[in-house]
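Provenance and format

Records in this collection were gathered into a single text stream. Each protein contributes a sequence line and a C-alpha cell line. The two records reproduced below are adjacent in the stream.
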Amino acid sequence: MKLLKILPIILLLLIFPAKTFAEMPKIEAGETYFDMIKGYYVLKDNVHVEINNHGHHATITANEAKVNVLTQKCWAEGKVNLKHDNETFSCDNAYLQWKTKTAEVVGNVKFNSQKIVSVTSDTAIFSWGDKIVDFYGNVTIKAEKNLQLEKNLKVKKKTYSHVRYNVIENKILQLEENSDTPNIEIPNPDNDSEEK
C-alpha cells in the first residue's frame, strides 16, 4: 500500500528534474490516491497539506483537495483553513500556487492576524511573497488600535468593496467604497498544465 502512494512521486522525479520542484509538500488525508491520467493527488476527509517553498511555509486543511506537485498548485474546498506565518484564512474554496506565492480564497472569507483582529469579505487574493492581501466584496474590518492607514485614508464606513492590506506593516493601503469587484473563480484542476 505504501508503495502505491510513493510510486507516483518516484515516477515524477524520474521524468522531471528535481530542481523544478519546491520542497515536496506533505500530504495527508483520510483517503488519498494519485490520479495518473490527470496528474494530481486527490485528497478526501481530514485533508492536511503543508507546503514549504523557499522559506515560505503554508498549511492547508479542508474537506477535499487536489494537489499537483508538478505544477505546484493546490485546490481546496469545504471548510478550508489556510495558515501562513501569523496569518490565517478560512473560506469555502482556495487555490494556491506556490511558484507564484499566491492564494485565491473564495466564499465566506475570514482573515485573522496577530496584528489586525479580523477582516471578512466575499473573496481575497493573498500574495505571501510580498505579504499583501486584496479583499473584495462586502469587506468589513475589525481592527486593533495600532492599525495604520495610508496617507489621507480614513475608515468611515462599515463595509467596503475593496481593501488592500500590508500584513508586515499592519497598514491599510487602499479603501474603496464602490469599486468593480473582480470575479475570482477557482480554476478547474483538470485544465491545469505546466505552462499556466
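Adjacent record:
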Amino acid sequence: MATYYGKKYKLLELRHRVKEVILATRIALKSNELGKPVSRQPLHVAMVDGESFHGGMCDRFKGIISLYAYCKYRSLPFRIRYTYPFKLEDYLSPAVYDWTLHEREYTDNPLYSRILYMRGEHTAARLLKLNARKQIHFYSNRDCLPQINAAYAGKEGQKAFNWGELYRELFKPGPVLAERIQSIKQDLGGDYYAAVFRFQNLLGDFHEYHFKSIHDSAEAEKLIRKCLDALLKLQAEHGDKALLVTSDSVTFLKRASQLDGVHIIPGNLIHIDGQKRHIPKDTYEIYLKSFLDFYVLSEAQKIYRIGTSYMYPSEFPVYAAKVHDIPFESVVI
C-alpha cells in the first residue's frame, strides 16, 4: 500500500496531468462551446461525456458525489454535465440542489477552463490542493468522500458529510422512474429484503469488456445451483418476507424467479461504459433498468451481496445501501 501511494501513485498523477492537456485540446478542437462563461465564480463541473472511460453507474456517482462534497465545503458552484450514453436528466431530476447547467455557463475554451482528470486516483490530494481560477471539468470514478471529510470536517464547525445525504440532496427520480419504482414496490407488497448477484459474463449472457464465460455447461449449472441454494438459505432466515433478487444475468434471474417468494425486476441490462461499439437502439428502457434496480434496492430492509470467491464483488449494492443507510452484508458462498 505504501508503494502504491508513493512512487507508483506519483507516476499515475503525472500520466493524468499529461492526459488533461491532451483531453482539453481534443475537446476544444471539436467543441462549439468556446465562449467566455457568464458565471463570475468558476464552476466545478462533474463530467460524464464519453470523452474518457467513466466506469459503471456507481463509479460515476462516486466521482460526482466527491466533487459535490468538496464544493459544498468550500461554497463553490457545482454542476453536472452527464451526456453519455444518455442525459442524466432523462432519468433523474435535481432534488435540493440544482446541478443542471444553464445557458452560457459552460465552456470548453482552455482560456477559461481546465480539466482535472482523477480516474483511478484513490486519494483526493490533487482536488484538495486545487485553487481554481478557471472552470473545472472533473473526471473521476472514485469515492474520495472520506479524504474530503478528513480535510474539512471539524473546521469552523463543519460536520462530516454522509454519502447518502449528499446523494439525496442532488437527485430524485424523474417522473417515469418514480412511477415505475412505485409500481414495483406495490408488487412487492410491503417490507422486503434484497439479494444481488454479479456474474459479469460467467453465464455467457452479459457482455462486459473481455470477461470470459464458463464453457462447461455442468460447471455453469453448478454455479447457478450454488447461488439458488444461497437464496433458499436466506428465505429460511427471513420467513415469508418478500425477497427482491437483482443480477446482471438474465439466465440466473429466470431461474431465481421460479422460487416462491422471489421477485425480480423484468428487463435487460448492459454495462453503461462497456458498449461503445455496440450500443443497441432504443436504449431508454435498458438504462432505466439500472436505475430501477438501484432505487428499489435502496429501499429494501437489508441488502445482501452474494457470490463465490471468483465472482465480482460489485459495489452497486454497497452504494444502493448508502442512499438510505440501510444494512448491507457481503456473503461469500
